[in-house]
């Protein structure tokens, strides 16, 4: 049975669009067939939907995407 998580990132819409564009290449080219990721915008918020085959893969995917979001936001804030 697959495990699904949906992460909602509430940021200004312009930042949500930037995050979506930055994360889409990662979502479209997964490193493993044990998980899949969809990145989209909904009502101005960034939605990251992760589906995985087990808890270990889910944890790794959630951590990766949250770190990427944090890194992108940090870079944008510093420029």
Give a description of the structure.
The chain has a 3-stranded antiparallel beta sheet, covered by helices on one side. Strand 2 and strand 3 form a beta hairpin. The protein has one domain: Alpha-D-phosphohexomutase, C-terminal domain (TATA-Binding Protein, 2-Layer Sandwich), CATH 3.30.310.50. The chain has 79 residues and is α+β, with helices and mostly antiparallel strands. It contains 2 helices and 3 strands, in the order βαββα. The relative contact order is 0.24. The mean pLDDT is 95. Helix 1 crosses helix 2. Helix content is 51%, strand content 29%.
Q: Helices and strands in order, then pairings?
A:
Blueprint lengths: L2 E7 L3 H16 L6 E8 L2 E8 L2 H24 L1
Antiparallel strand pairs: 1-3, 2-3
Helix pairs in contact: 1-2
Summarize the structure in short.
The chain contains 2 helices and 3 strands; from the N terminus they run βαββα. It is of the alpha+beta class and 79 residues long.
Q: What is the number of domains?
A: 1
Mean pLDDT: 95
Low-pLDDT stretches are none
Question: Counting H and I runs of at least 4 residues, what is the number of helices?
Answer: 2
Which CATH class? Alpha Beta
Which class do the helix and strand fractions yield?
Answer: alpha+beta
Could you give the distance between the termini? 44 Å
List descriptors.
79 residues; alpha+beta; globular; TATA-Binding Protein; single chain; three-stranded antiparallel beta sheet; 29% strand; 2 helices
């Amino acid at each position: 049975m697959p495990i699904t998580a949906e992460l909602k990132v509430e940021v200004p819409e312009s930042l949500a669009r930037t995050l979506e564009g930055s994360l889409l290449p990662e979502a479209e080219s997964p490193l493993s067939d044990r998980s899949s990721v969809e990145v989209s915008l909904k009502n101005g918020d960034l939605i990251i939907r992760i589906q995985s085959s087990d808890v270990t893969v889910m944890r790794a995917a959630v951590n990766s995407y949250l770190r990427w979001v944090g890194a992108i936001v940090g870079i944008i804030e510093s420029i």
